[in-house]
UniProtKB/TrEMBL annotation:
<dbReference type="InterPro" id="IPR024775">
    <property type="entry name" value="DinB-like"/>
</dbReference>
<protein>
    <recommendedName>
        <fullName>DinB-like domain-containing protein</fullName>
    </recommendedName>
</protein>
<feature type="domain" description="DinB-like">
    <location>
        <begin position="23"/>
        <end position="175"/>
    </location>
</feature>
<dbReference type="Pfam" id="PF12867">
    <property type="entry name" value="DinB_2"/>
</dbReference>
<dbReference type="InterPro" id="IPR034660">
    <property type="entry name" value="DinB/YfiT-like"/>
</dbReference>
Length: 188
């Protein structure tokens, strides 16, 4: 797959995720959005807050990486994956139902959250769409993005963008499952 196709596919996924969040959660009350299926599980808002925490780190880092990549660099035909990129993507793919322990500062469990969490998520999505657009002009295989939990490790720009989108897919699906549990409970 060409880099341009990959970026367009990622952009479409981001637009879809934004629509899902805007439409699936807007009609719910704050009490419903904070519903937790179990004390150790996340609410819908906690799923979004987790993604917001990642976006607060990665969006500025990705913006800087895109800005520092000149358009003079050799344009590549696709995204190549490093071992850390492959491992990171494998871990967060929605199909991978294995639970992973979240680093403490990225874990929103028992946070006091409001509708502002949803609004912030949607703003981060707009930033990510702009990043995906801007990334069309740069080398996606340049190692330029420090991994959040261990900044000495760097991922390539393209795999970092893909990581952000796939990670969001995983947790939006998780939030939708929480909503489904809430609806089942309300119907019972």
């Amino acid at each position: 797959m060409t880099a341009m196709n990959a970026l367009e596919q990622l952009s479409q996924t981001v637009r879809n995720l934004s629509d899902i969040v805007a439409h699936s959660f807007s009609s719910l009350s704050l009490v419903d959005l904070n519903y937790k299926p179990a004390p150790d599980k996340w609410s819908m808002l906690e799923c979004l807050e987790h993604l917001n925490r990642y976006s607060r780190y990665y969006n500025p880092v990705l913006t800087k990486a895109v800005a520092q990549s000149s358009s003079d660099e050799i344009y590549v035909t696709g995204i190549n994956y490093s071992w850390i990129g492959k491992k990171s993507l494998e871990m967060v793919r929605p199909q991978n139902m294995k639970k992973h322990k979240t680093v403490k500062h990225m874990n929103p469990n028992n946070s006091q959250l409001t509708r502002a969490t949803v609004e912030e998520f949607l703003l981060h999505q707009q930033e990510l769409l702009q990043l995906l657009y801007d990334a069309r002009k740069v080398n996606l295989n340049r190692k330029a993005v420090p991994v959040e939990f261990f900044k000495l490790l760097k991922m390539r720009l393209g795999e970092s963008l893909e990581f952000m989108v796939v990670h969001q897919e995983r947790h939006i699906q998780q939030a939708l499952r929480v909503k489904q549990e809430l609806m089942k409970q309300a119907a019972a």
